[in-house]
Amino acid sequence: MAAVMLEKEKEDKKQERDATLSERVPPLQLSGLSMQDLQALCKDLHHKIDVVDEERYDIESKVVKNNKEIENLSLKIFELKGKMKRPALKRVKISADAMLGALLGAKVKESVDFKANLKTVKKEEEKKEEVTDWRKNVEAMSGMEGRKKLFDAGQ
Description:
single chain; about 160 residues; mainly alpha; 5 helices; elongated
């Protein structure tokens, strides 16, 4: 079905093109013309070709310019969709009570003491060993008696 429609469309375009060409360009009658008439006809045709080429070049340059503009605008649209510009935020000084009032609304009438709600934790003091002279300790631990003391202390 689609192939038939494509064929019909191509045929219609070809017929339209032929009709436009026959209307715009009359058939040439070269028989019975003198040399000067042929040269004048050639010059006239060259002039028409030059005019058509200039128009084609102008239209082509406009198309290229429009394509570049479309591309630039589509890039701008893409950038605008992708990035939302954030406004510059200003620093605001506000008290804790005012902040709570703004967050919680009219529920909080009195100031809240946060320190009263905190748990108290007692720190345990770490047991520190006495620092003694290391030389005495080395002499005491030397030999088999020192190893026995280490073994007994480990159990």
